[in-house]
């Protein structure tokens, strides 16, 4: 019996509770209160009941969506032990990074703590109490001090944060701070997976896909900015901005930066992408549609590739937790899309559902 057998059986049983396309079609015609009523008849019932005791309307809906995602992912983690648990912890560590960046942005921009907390998903190191305490700090420096003292989200990340913050104090460039933390996260995740062996392949593929997507967007954005401003100082620094662990290397970046425009740069990067669906999105992208359209399409295809592991991956390995985590995150995104204006049919085409439902 492998470390994945029990957990995968539990996740396969839960897969049936994921919302399908008919459910999304019904939800698309409802307002926030209607969506809450509908979701109260699904696996979201505990979160809806709790959220509606504290808030109403759209605020309660957002709370229920976020809380349900956190519960599902933490329960996923609890199903595994041994080497499987190591892989699941690496898989879910993306939420530690997400929460860390959300909290730091909130303090750097002096956002109300309630607004910052609304972006936190209580998975991993940041439970609700810890996240709120960080969000309530008077400024970024105090938030960093608290995170370092508490060694959150983990000791290695806390040390990386302290180093990045020292640089930030000289430059006051928040994107540079964030990049340092993202690069540290992917470098450590890649190193951990390197020591696990072949069974880590689905999780490694998930991380590599995200790194490739981020690096491709970085290159295209820089070329797009250069075309708009006729300045290439940032573009020359692009190789230093590459995140570790992906298929796009410095030579490919330099070639793409020599392209005549963002469309040609996207095609250059596409040649290095091992994930065909992402390469296709880059090749077909029309710069007139804007970089955000490319970002949305790359993310949609990346998530769809992860969810497809339900059907295409090894049913006795890490493919199932990868697919389930991606499906839960996509479901949360789908519901947020339907809940926000313009909502309804206009966003229905952007929904991501399990492969069998497409």
What can be said about this structure in brief?
By secondary structure, this protein is an all-alpha fold. The chain is built from 21 helices and no strands. The protein has a domain of 127 residues: Topoisomerase I, Chain A, domain 4, CATH 1.10.132.50.
Topology:
Elements: H1 5-15, H2 21-27, H3 32-39, H4 45-51, H5 57-78, H6 82-108, H7 113-117, H8 128-135, H9 140-150, H10 155-171, H11 174-194, H12 201-229, H13 233-236, H14 238-241, H15 250-257, H16 262-270, H17 276-284, H18 291-307, H19 309-312, H20 319-339, H21 344-348
Helix pairs in contact: 3-5, 4-5, 5-6, 5-20, 6-11, 9-10, 10-11, 11-12, 12-16, 12-18, 15-16, 16-17, 17-18, 18-20
Classified in CATH, the superfamily of the domain at 1-80 and 312-358 is ATP synthase (C/AC39) subunit, domain 3
Kindly report how far apart the N and C termini lie.
33 Å
Number of strands: 0
Shape: globular
Radius of gyration equals 21 Å
* CATH third-level topology of the domain at 1-80 and 312-358: Topoisomerase I, Chain A, domain 4
Weakly predicted, low-confidence segments? none
Task: Please summarize the sheet with the most strands.
Answer: none
Number of helices: 21
What series of H and E elements makes up the topology? HHHHHHHHHHHHHHHHHHHHH
Structural class by sheet pairing and helices: mainly alpha
Strand residue percentage: under 5%
In the CATH scheme, the class of the domain at 1-80 and 312-358 would be Mainly Alpha
Helical residue percent?
A: over 70%
Question: Roughly what is the average pLDDT, rounded to an integer?
Answer: 92
What's the CATH architecture of the domain at 1-80 and 312-358?
Answer: Orthogonal Bundle
């Amino acid at each position: 019996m492998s470390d994945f057998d029990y957990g995968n059986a539990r996740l396969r049983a839960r897969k049936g509770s994921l919302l399908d396309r008919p459910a999304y079609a019904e939800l698309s015609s409802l307002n926030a209160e209607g969506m809450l009523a509908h979701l109260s008849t699904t696996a979201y019932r505990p979160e809806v009941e709790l959220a509606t005791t504290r808030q109403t309307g759209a605020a309660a809906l957002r709370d229920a969506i976020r809380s349900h995602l956190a519960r599902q992912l933490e329960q996923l983690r609890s199903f595994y032990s041994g080497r499987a648990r190591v892989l699941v912890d690496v898989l879910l560590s993306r939420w530690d990074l997400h929460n860390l960046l959300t909290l730091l942005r909130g303090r750097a921009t002096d956002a109300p703590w309630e607004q910052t907390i609304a972006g936190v998903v209580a998975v991993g190191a940041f439970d609700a109490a810890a996240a709120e305490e960080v969000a309530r700090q008077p400024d970024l420096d105090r938030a960093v001090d608290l995170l370092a003292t508490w060694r959150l989200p983990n000791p290695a990340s806390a040390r990386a944060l302290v180093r990045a913050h020292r640089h930030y104090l000289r430059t006051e460039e928040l994107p540079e701070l964030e990049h340092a933390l993202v690069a540290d996260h992917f470098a450590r995740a890649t190193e951990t997976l390197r020591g696990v062996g072949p069974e880590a392949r689905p999780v490694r593929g998930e991380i590599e896909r995200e790194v490739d997507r981020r690096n491709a967007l970085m290159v295209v954005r820089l070329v797009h900015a250069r075309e708009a401003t006729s300045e290439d100082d940032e573009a020359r620094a692009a190789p230093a901005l590459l995140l570790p662990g992906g298929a796009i290397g410095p030579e490919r970046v330099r070639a793409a930066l020599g392209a005549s425009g963002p469309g040609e740069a996207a095609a250059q990067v596409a040649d290095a992408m091992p994930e065909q669906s992402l390469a296709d999105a880059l090749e077909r992208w029309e710069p007139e549609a804007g970089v955000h359209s490319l970002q949305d399409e790359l993310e949609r295809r990346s998530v769809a590739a992860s969810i497809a592991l339900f059907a295409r991956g090894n049913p006795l390995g890490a493919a199932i937790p990868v697919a389930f985590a991606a499906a839960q995150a996509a479901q949360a995104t789908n519901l947020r899309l339907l809940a926000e204006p313009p909502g309804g049919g206009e966003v229905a085409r952007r929904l991501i559902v399990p492969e069998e439902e497409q």
